[in-house]
Design a protein that fits this description.
binds inosine 5'-triphosphate; Maf protein; 7 strands; 25% strand; alpha/beta; 6 helices
């Protein structure tokens, strides 16, 4: 898709610079510029990333007194009953990717299936949040590979691919990722409604 001139902007509240860059690249393709707010909204505990993003966006929009987006991601591994799901951040910080590889042990391809789910929530101060979802299906690699990206990128191989997300450039990841899909859905709506 051709890049369009940036005509609109939106604030994105996130503590994560990788997320910011991916969303910035995805929205730039729709002509939407992104301004970073380094704090984020309050994160509730829920099995559903959309609920987490919904609540956080309403909280952040009140705090920053402006319309904004927040994004929440979960990694759901089929053979582990959806673990770590929305607790991916805590699991990554506490035991990291290696623990996931150990948990899966020598399981075969079918049993390594996993999905990243992303929810981008838009909210105006005093408004009702609107949520856009995206996903990417793939498999947990047998070993970590690649230096790009962040979090579980070195152990996630998108379906139909042979490289991990960490082996892709950020430009490539920002075209195919769960977050890119959710951000693009938001951007298409935003362009129509702002
Ligand atoms: P926010 O400030 O935006 O909330 P965060 O890093 O806390 O940033 P999340 O809770 O949404 O974000 O992300 C949970 C964790 O899941 C994150 O710390 C990574 O370890 C992992 N993760 C999220 N998105 C990922 C991606 O695109 N690739 C690999 N791992 C990802």
């Amino acid at each position: 898709m051709n890049e369009r001139r940036t005509e609109r902007t939106i604030s994105f509240a996130t503590s994560n610079s990788h997320k910011f860059r991916e969303v910035e690249l995805a929205l730039r393709r729709l002509g939407v510029g992104v301004k970073r707010l380094r704090g984020k909204g309050l994160e509730i505990q829920s099995d559903d990333t959309a609920e987490v993003a919904r609540f956080a966006s309403a909280d952040a929009a009140k705090k920053y007194e402006r319309p904004l987006i927040v994004e929440d991601t979960g990694l759901f591994i089929d053979a582990l009953g959806g673990f770590p799901g929305p607790y991916a951040s805590f699991v990554f910080r506490s035991v990291g990717s290696e623990a996931i590889l150990r948990l899966l042990g020598g399981r075969g391809e079918e049993e390594r299936r996993a999905t990243f789910w992303s929810a981008v929530a838009y909210c105006e101060p005093q408004g009702v949040p609107r949520v856009f979802r995206g996903s990417i299906v793939g498999a947990i690699a047998r070993r970590a590979a690649g230096r790009g990206g962040f979090g579980f990128d070195p152990i996630f191989i998108p379906a139909g691919d042979s490289l991990t997300l960490a082996q892709l450039s950020i430009d490539e990841k920002s075209r195919i990722s769960h977050r890119a899909e959710a951000a693009t859905k938001f951007g298409e709506w935003y362009v129509r409604h702002s």
